[in-house]
Amino acid sequence: MHFHTIRFPFLLLLPLLIHTLAMAEEAPENVTKIVPELQLWGSDPVLVEAARAQNALGRSLDDIKRIDAEWIQASEPTPFMAELQNNPAAEELKRLEQSQPYFFEVFLMDDQGANVAMTNQTSDFWQGDEAKFTQSFADGQGAVHVGEVKFDSSAQAYLVQVSVPVMDAGKAIGALTIGIDLDRLEQESR
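Above: the chain sequence. Below: its structure as tokens.
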């Protein structure tokens, strides 16, 4: 009987241990160490105000998807895309991105996952159906999402995206995704 009381709790912990090992393989420890700093970005007053202002526009999901389709089909940057790279929130994102050499790309989303501001042009306007938004926005609860490590051929680097909620009065009103160049992060951590 003593054997069963020891084994039972271990079996309950086994899935947690396996999940932790899988996460460690996907996101290096160096990434985990900077997550608290990135979470603070989610309360930056400039970014909070920008997300709040876009949410107040009340765009329907149909409108967002229409803009998304036009965005994807555009063969070159449109004035709307340029506006999202040059508004006050984009300037704040650029300042944050330049704070460390390993930050690669940063973009801000509203409460539906539509872009509000960005440092680099994203491949689409609406992130609302992607884990980077759904898991960090978490139905208004807010959470941290660390994506999979991927090789980016245009950057010639291994990148990971960390997404954090944009919080206002204890509620998620948007999300922020930060691309991290893992090679540069490793160099800076030495």
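The first strand starts at residue 103 and ends at 109.
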